[in-house]
Design a protein that fits this description.
The complex is a heterodimer of chains A (380) and B (248).
Chain A (H helix, E strand, L loop, with lengths): L1 E2 L9 E5 L5 E5 L12 E5 L2 E2 L3 E6 L5 E9 L7 E7 L22 E4 L2 E11 L2 E6 L3 H11 L14 H4 L7 E3 L11 H10 L2 E7 L9 H4 L6 E5 L1 H12 L4 E4 L1 H9 L10 E5 L14 E5 L8 H4 L5 H13 L3 E2 L5 E5 L2 H10 L30
Parallel strand pairs in A: 1-18, 2-19, 4-13, 4-15, 5-12, 15-17
Antiparallel strand pairs in A: 2-3, 6-7, 6-9, 7-8, 8-11, 9-10, 10-11, 13-14, 14-16, 17-19
Chain B lengths: L1 H6 L11 E5 L4 H12 L3 E6 L2 H11 L2 E4 L5 H15 L4 E4 L17 H31 L5 E5 L12 H21 L5 E5 L7 H6 L11 H21 L2 H4 L1
Parallel strand pairs in B: 1-2, 1-4, 2-3, 4-5, 5-6
The chains are: A alpha/beta (380), B alpha/beta (248).
């Protein structure tokens, strides 16, 4: 597929895959009329941190790029899990980026006005836990002034925060944009309202999509904190009770909804940490459809789509998207994928007692994030 | 002071815990608002251009001081990030920072185009950009049944055609009209917009515009702030009594 290489989304198209696998080609603006009264569209309103920071390793003077990638204590923007790179920037594909200088606990990095101290190495030379020197306000000021949005080689020109904040972006907790939200504008939201389609939100700290290292990539997504407002939980309960659809705007929303799924078919409001992996074995409890970018087999979000559709349907969709010149990646076209009737039927037999956080069969060694403190958070 | 607080907790004011951002927070009306909202138990972040004065007002009030210029495009998102990051969201945005345009005041025919542009950049485009960047946070607040209010500080110069007030008056008129349109558009999201004329105040800006005025004839910014806070309280109460917009 052709990678969308600028943040200009005016031309974006929309491909829809119905419950029986039928494919249609539409315009993104058609989103305004695709849903029925009573349906609930759930979006991730996380704003995105400028999580890429360039600087130097104090001991050696070697250049380093830090990409913040996970919360140590949700709500505390002075401590993070991070991926470290050596020289270069986003214009080099991550898999070709040199490793960072050898990092040890206690090492200091100077990143513009910010000073970072490495707290721990997390069993991979690129993966560290670190803290910024200073209080919340001074660290946020440093990030605001020096940080850049994380970006990849397919978008060469430097991005600004306004490129990566969606229209609904509120709390800055994501490390990369919850990009399905780029499909939203206030006119669409107003049109939904007119039709009786409800927009509900949750806040999910979307993590990074690629580290450039296969061993680390296999651990993605890391644990991600989320928060679901009462109003969203109520709207989902109501819609489920009346047999209406729940549409997840983006893979992060799917993950949060499934992590918070309750036995009664709704979601539990409050804060939580998504540790779940969603894949072909997942019996989805909440979303009936997902709006997401165009993903081909082997890409990071593809496994999650396998919870919605069988491989045949997904392969056919990817081929059609390829042939029709759809654009991939975060600034590209979008796809509305309904949970396939066949998949729903098969899985409801198979996993009547499925856990809320099923592991995909191929799940590799889990990241050692269980060591990471999650103080201050509980599922209420 | 402590005793008063004990007897009459700040929760009585209804502002405790509300998350409020104020631009132009180091002088005049803005500083008075920072002081009074902070004293009322609100969580306040304010913006101003001069680091030393920001530090001073932050130390005095306990509010979060942010250095930035709303007239500069590149400052807006960094400010929005710091506002939402430090406050954990936003309930009320007060676009108070503004510039007079050329001083001493001069007729439009003598006004440099660049000076008009600068007045529009700070008094109109700046509030537009900052509101847009924070609109998601305000909408989120509304969805959760909290207040969601944008207050744009206007002026009688937005209404009356005072000679020599062209740059300022045109920018404030545009700001007031933008507020009215945005209020109509945002009602369904549960966000309200108010354009408020605080009256002629004894502020550095007024002294620059009309240096010969006897300050005793002018409103104290503290009084104007108290009046504005009453307006805001009333607007929030109205929102609470008409919650349909945010939820249905």
């Amino acid at each position: 597929m052709i990678a969308a290489d600028t943040p200009d989304q005016r031309a974006a198209r929309l491909l829809t895959v119905g419950r029986d696998g039928e494919i249609r080609h539409r315009r993104r603006s058609d989103l305004a009329t695709l849903f029925d009264p009573g349906d609930v569209v759930v979006a991730n309103d996380a704003a995105t941190l400028p999580a890429s920071l360039h600087g130097r390793h104090e001991a050696t003077g070697a250049p380093v790029e830090i990409r913040l990638a996970g919360w140590v204590t949700p709500g505390d923007p002075t401590r993070f899990l991070a991926i470290a790179f050596g020289p270069g920037d986003h214009r080099t594909q991550t898999e070709y980026r040199p490793p960072p200088p050898r990092l040890n606990p206690g090492d200091r990095l100077r990143l513009g006005p910010l000073i970072v101290v490495i707290d721990r190495l997390l069993d991979h030379p690129r993966l560290v836990e670190l803290h910024f020197v200073g209080d919340t306000a001074s660290v946020l000021a440093g990030l605001a002034g020096h940080g850049r949005p994380i970006q990849y080689a397919h978008v060469p020109s430097p991005l600004a925060l306004w490129d990566v904040w969606t229209s609904i972006a509120a709390d800055p907790v994501a490390f990369e944009p919850p990009s399905a939200g780029f499909a939203l504008d206030w006119r669409t939201i107003a049109a939904w309202r007119e039709r009786g389609v409800r927009l509900a939100t949750l806040t999910h700290a979307a993590g990074i999509s690629s580290t450039g290292d296969p061993a680390l990539d296999a651990r993605l997504p890391f644990d991600e904190p989320y928060r679901i407002p009462e109003a969203t939980s109520d709207a989902i309960h109501r819609a489920k009770r009346h047999g209406r659809r729940i549409v997840a705007l983006g893979t992060t929303v799917v993950r949060a909804l499934e992590a918070a799924a309750s036995s009664s078919g709704g979601v539990i409001a409050g804060a939580g940490i998504a540790r779940n992996r969603i894949g072909p074995a997942t019996r989805l409890a909440v979303p009936d459809a997902v709006l997401t970018g165009m993903h081909a087999p082997g890409e990071s979000h593809y496994d999650l789509l396998r919870a919605f559709a069988d491989d045949g349907t997904l392969r056919r969709t990817a081929k059609v998207a390829q042939d029709r010149g759809y654009h991939s990646h975060e600034f590209g076209d979008v796809m509305l994928l309904s949970r396939q009737r066949a998949v729903s039927a098969a899985r409801s037999h198979r996993s009547a007692s499925a856990s809320r956080t099923p592991s995909a069969p191929k799940a590799p060694a889990k990241p050692r994030l269980s060591q990471v403190s999650t103080r201050g958070l509980e599922i209420t | 002071m402590t005793k008063t607080t004990d007897l009459k907790p700040a929760a009585d004011t209804g502002f405790r815990g509300l998350r409020i951002a104020i631009t132009g927070g180091t002088s005049g009306l803005g500083r008075a608002l920072v002081r009074q909202f902070s004293a009322a138990g609100a969580r306040v972040a304010f913006v101003a251009r001069t680091a030393d004065r920001v530090k001073q007002v932050a130390a005095e009030t306990g509010a979060i001081g942010l250095v930035g210029d709303v007239g500069q495009k590149d400052d807006i998102y960094p400010l929005a990030l710091q506002i939402t990051g430090t406050l954990g969201g936003l309930d009320i945005l007060i676009n108070n920072a503004s510039v007079l345009g050329p001083v001493p005041l001069i007729p439009l025919a003598d006004t440099d185009c660049e000076d008009l542009e600068q007045a529009l950049a700070v008094n109109l485009i700046g509030p537009f950009r900052l509101t847009k960047a924070l609109y998601g946070a305000l909408a989120s607040s509304a969805r959760e049944g909290r207040g969601a209010l944008v207050v744009n500080i206007s002026s009688d110069a937005a209404v009356s055609a005072y000679p020599d007030w062209g740059a300022y008056g045109a920018s404030k008129a545009a700001l007031a009209h933008m507020s009215a349109i945005w209020d109509a558009e945002a009602a369904t999201q549960g966000i309200r917009f108010l354009a408020v004329d605080p009256g002629d105040m004894d502020t550095p800006m007024h002294a620059a515009a009309l240096p010969d005025t006897d300050p005793a004839t002018l409103k104290r910014p503290e009084d104007a702030a108290a009046e504005l806070i009453e307006r805001i309280r009333a607007a929030l109460a109205e929102q609470q009594s008409a919650p349909e917009a945010a939820s249905a």
